[in-house]
Specification:
Elements (H helix, E strand, L loop, with lengths): L3 E11 L3 H13 L6 E7 L6 H8 L6 E5 L5 H16 E10 L2 E2 L5 H12 L3 E8 L16 H19 L3 H10 L16 E2 L7 E5 H4 L14 H11 L4 E11 L3 H7 L2 H26 L1
Parallel strand pairs: 1-2, 1-4, 2-3, 6-9
Antiparallel strand pairs: 4-8, 5-9, 6-8, 7-9
Helix pairs in contact: 5-6, 5-10, 8-10, 9-10
């Protein structure tokens, strides 16, 4: 059977925050020609039953498909469920991975993406990300890809954070880093109103073009959460593909809704973050070693 041709398939990873997911879906519908797009919601085994509620709400919709995972697959593998569904069922120019706490507000986003693709032939594109605190500096996440040495240093540093967290001495470790290791908060020197190529993009909203879709079935599936952007950037470099940050497009990001739902208290959230980022950095370091 011939696949239905689409401008874009939007993949939304859902975990418990149903109101945010519905707002995300409705914002996509409101600002796009629904005959040219499809929305795929992947419920990451939400324990509150909201996946079933979403399936019931959009049952019979020609625009929205809800996939319910039997287990929490994390960020990469959860998104990959939707990515693969889009590839298998539609002929898409773009597959867009979106957090469920994203809100769209532009009517001509896909036209802008088309113009950029004609210009650069990008594999992955990221927009300006506006946040509730009024900032717009989330993207690009890094101006240059992490080196192996930087990844190893980050892993060691976060292992220190994790140990200090478990021993209830995290403030002491922060002071130790600042005074003895001379660690300073990382800053990105860039003009966020300027377009950039070959940068590390924020994972909350990423546009994948046909060049990427033809070669891959989504993200590297060896991580659970965090650090996926750095691994993706390494994949692009390895395969001679281009990333583009395009500030002509903007989306609103509420930030960390699903992570907050998953990890509970601030202390548990930090430990969750450290553990999973360390595991993701191990995957990235392994990529360097395999290339060598």
């Amino acid at each position: 059977m011939e696949k239905r041709k689409l401008d874009a398939a939007f993949v939304i990873l859902h975990y418990m925050a149903m109101d945010d997911t519905v707002e995300c879906i409705e914002s996509i519908i409101a600002h796009n020609d629904i005959s040219r797009i499809h929305i795929i919601v992947v419920d990451n085994s939400s324990p509150d039953g909201s996946g079933a509620l979403l399936e019931e709400k959009y049952r019979g919709s020609s625009t929205v498909t809800v996939i319910e995972s039997k287990e929490n697959l994390g960020f990469a593998r959860g998104n990959n469920l939707g990515f693969k569904y889009a590839k298998e069922n539609f002929d898409c120019r773009y597959i867009i991975l979106s957090n469920n706490d994203i809100v769209l507000f532009e009517d001509n986003m896909l036209q802008k993406i088309d113009r950029e693709y004609e210009k650069s032939g990008f594999a992955v594109l990221g927009p300006m990300i506006l946040t509730k605190d009024g900032k717009y500096t989330s993207n690009p996440q890094r101006m240059k890809a992490l080196t192996k040495e930087q990844a190893e240093a980050m892993k060691k540093d976060f292992e220190g954070f994790l140990l200090s967290q478990k021993m209830y001495v995290r403030p002491c470790y922060i002071m130790y880093r600042k005074v003895f290791l001379k660690k300073k908060k990382r800053t990105r020197i860039c003009d966020h109103y300027k377009r950039y190529e070959d940068v590390t993009l924020h994972g909350c909203f990423m546009v994948f073009s046909e060049k990427y879709i033809d070669e891959f079935d989504g993200l590297d599936d060896r991580t659970f959460m965090y650090g996926e952007e750095d691994i993706l950037h390494r994949r692009l470099i390895k395969n001679g593909m281009k990333s583009v940050y395009l500030p002509d497009i903007a989306v609103y990001h509420k930030e960390d809704v699903s992570t907050d739902s998953a990890s509970g208290s601030a202390r548990k959230k930090r430990e969750f973050y450290y553990k999973n980022l360390i595991a993701s950095l191990e995957v990235l370091i392994g990529e360097f070693e395999n290339e060598g």
